Amino acid sequence: MARTKIRILSLDGGGIRGIIPATIMVEIENRLQQRTNNPDARIADFVDLVAGTSTGGILTSIYLCPGANNRPKFAAKDALELYLNNGKDIFQMEFLSKVAKLYVVFNEMYPSKHIEKLLAEYFGDTELDDLLRPCLITAYDIRNRRAHFFNSVDARGGKKIYNYKLKDVCRATSAAPTYFEPAKISSEQGADYTLVDGGVFVNNPALAAYSEARTIRFSKEVAAHKPDFPSAKDMLIISVGTGTVKTPYHYDKIKNAGLIAWLPIVIDIMMSGNSETVHYHLQKMFNTLSEEDEQDYYRLEPALQDASSEMDDVSDENLKNLHEAGLHYVAKHDALIEEIVSKLIAYA
Q: Of 80, 117, 44, 45, which is closest to residue 322 (Cα–Cα)?
């Protein structure tokens, strides 16, 4: 048997920019179907652990959500269509917000009822422990002031305190400060948590996924031949971003900036800075491995092209531009995508 590895997919946060990784994953799933001559093949069939933050957490949940006969309920194109068809509903501003701009200084920009309705439609009563593969989805507990990791392995371990409705997990990981109010959710045991978007501390969850994989007995959770508690040399990590954001901030324009002016700048720097730092660490880690193994870490970070960097720009033009940015990346990096697909198949 060819050598197997733990195949890890990591998906960044980024609001509506989730269209970009969703587009890339459609291409990867299509190629997996073509290469295996199986039109029913899904992303979940070729990964052993998926990690996601915010919009990446929603994508994670869609890819791993079970349907009939314990097969994936959704195809990758369904995840893309969620954003293209429902983006305007998710980021739907109330009338008061539109007519009174001061409203958004003291309140979140978007009511949570729209995204909650959509998540309920997609996931119903599915729970975290139902997911088809191990996952790690991030959020931050603002009451207890600590990182909160939704972990399907722990949820399946019999402790109800670790199990949640999947729609609540997605609501929590995507509760971006200033955009949506915090999520107040309960575990199956009834423990209450007040959570916000995991992007406040780990917008790129790839390093957290590595750490999580180190603790998992994959021979039990995925397949008997999979290595348990793997180290980096036993991993294939594919980390997908939501578009490079390199907005420059010049001294003359921000030297006298106040709280309101600095807030979006801090959020932007915090998210992109975290993603860059995680990439730096993983790159250094894999560079310590053999020449063959060091090639098994991939960071896909598409350029935004003509798309807006705003996480909530759901104009028709921007939805189209985000989709085209994903398509442009796939076309430009055809050989890279093919290489990744080959390894996803080879490391089964």
A: 80
